[in-house]
Amino acid sequence: MKIAVDAMGGDNAPQAIVEGVMLAKKDFPEIEFLLYGKETEIKKYVTDEKNITIIHTDEKISSDDEPVKAIRRKKEASMVLAAQAVKKGEADAIFSAGNTGALLAAGLFIVGRIKNIERPGLMSTMPVIGQPDGGFDMMDLGANAENKPEHLVQYAVLGTFYAEKVRDIKQPRVGLLNNGTEETKGSELTKKAFELLSEEPSINFIGNVEARDLLSGVADVVVTDGFTGNAVLKSIEGTALSMMSLLKTSILDEGLKGKLGALLLKDALRGMKNELDYSKHGGAVLFGLKAPVIKTHGSTGPDAVRHTIRQIHTMLETKVVSQLVEHYENQE
Amino acid sequence: MKIAVDAMGGDNAPQAIVEGVMLAKKDFPEIEFLLYGKETEIKKYVTDEKNITIIHTDEKISSDDEPVKAIRRKKEASMVLAAQAVKKGEADAIFSAGNTGALLAAGLFIVGRIKNIERPGLMSTMPVIGQPDGGFDMMDLGANAENKPEHLVQYAVLGTFYAEKVRDIKQPRVGLLNNGTEETKGSELTKKAFELLSEEPSINFIGNVEARDLLSGVADVVVTDGFTGNAVLKSIEGTALSMMSLLKTSILDEGLKGKLGALLLKDALRGMKNELDYSKHGGAVLFGLKAPVIKTHGSTGPDAVRHTIRQIHTMLETKVVSQLVEHYENQE
């Protein structure tokens, strides 16, 4: 099992990335890591050289680079070389905390789509509040600005495969994100998608779900178009962050009383933060490609990298992508 | 100034509605209220009869009724009679906490659209965290399942009028909700809307805004299509509610320590809740109609009714709708 790592992607690269890889090595000593980037910088954080190969390159893609151009022009960039390793069969999966758009482009143009999958989408496992181990898989979170009803059905199948194989959920409940739960609700896109999802035999479609019920665990897999998915993801993140900061200032405004109260509630507040932290489920999968292509937040730290390596390990071990390739290649 | 009130709409009607009207009467003794619904039930909560007229009717629209059918068939329903009073000029505005779809239908089919406004939208003032009096006006929150770029420009104009006249904000910053801040981002709808908004002289367009920055006050007016607006609104509400309940259980899980901590933080937590409660800004306006048509949550209590009456009072006093009628009637 070989994972190609873009060691230069992300705000804290290469330190956070390499430190995370070192943590993951302890969990999974059998994984071989190919680290792409500046050798001297990467080496600083390599505490155990076993199963680590550094492939030196000076070039990297920055967060400001225009994605498609960057992929085409920066042919020696760490991300591009990592993607090419997957294409050539030298690695089984790629991981990056770098420029999301560029990774999407590298995934599409270098790793390549699974046959018959029209529009790979971005999928994350989001938290279910009140269930520390719970979560739901949502896609598309923004790989596409526009989707057709047929794409949403493919997302339902992809999400079902992921929830079953990687998250070990039997017959995962698939919900269609809509502006009401009634069958007749929605835009032209969601009405047609509802119809197609109802007819799809390989999934357990439970109907429409509303954005306000997502964090309560109303479904195991939630499908939506990339524009809406992106807006919903950012709304959830923005609201959670705003509330945490509101909580903090509300406490600080109370002076000594607030400090004392906060001290007593330290464990409770930490527990709350942990429950909201969905990086424990790993990163976002660009799903629908011939190999696992995984993205984490640019601000990712070593722990999140470690969780993501675990996720990739499970994806490779369960062969979820190879099974999808088989499923879709046999379709005509 | 006369307000037609659907006294039978909402989960706590008529009690919460009539009690709220009684509170509002103290703030605005000059408003005349027309209360539509069961006279004997309404009378129970009328503590001051001055400027109160009860128009008895036995019929009402329930939350399960199919909106358009209900409006057409239940011709004596409290909501329908209230809307007709506005149409006939017997009242200046209508307020209901009942079936949202039915109120939208009553607004469109009975009160009627402003000339040249194609698709009235639902607008609410949402909270800005860290600014107790701050807020942003967002529309369309779901009156339409589908919108054209031109509609979003009309929402920008409507929202600007509202922010200026009702909320007293000079040159309100108008943002387009999009999946990135760069000009080139988005779906076909948002790309075209961006272009049209940039050319609209009567607004202060600041470009694209992302859902994660809404609660930080990135814009005073945020425009989006009804499907996305609905999903974002529900994501924000759902996340805020989930977090409040997570905070509660996290505290309870800590036993005595948690209880003590919560006691010390009581004021802080209450302050936090108040800041999130956007009912202080009033209800949702079905905007683009010939008169103010205002909806509040079905679970609304007397205080929210009071805030909503204040909002309607400001809308009538500032003549925001009449000015919009003038603005749009002169367009050809």
From TrEMBL, chains A, B:
Q: Which InterPro entries match?
A: FA_synthesis, Phospholipid_synth_PlsX-like
Keyword Calcium attached: no
Where is this chain's protein located in or outside the cell?
Answer: Cytoplasm
> Can you name one GO molecular function term for this protein?
phosphate:acyl-[acyl carrier protein] acyltransferase activity
Broad EC category: transferase
Catalysed reaction, written as an equation: a fatty acyl-[ACP] + phosphate = an acyl phosphate + holo-[ACP]
| Known pathway | Lipid metabolism; phospholipid metabolism
Q: What is this protein called?
A: Phosphate acyltransferase
Native organism: Enterococcus rivorum
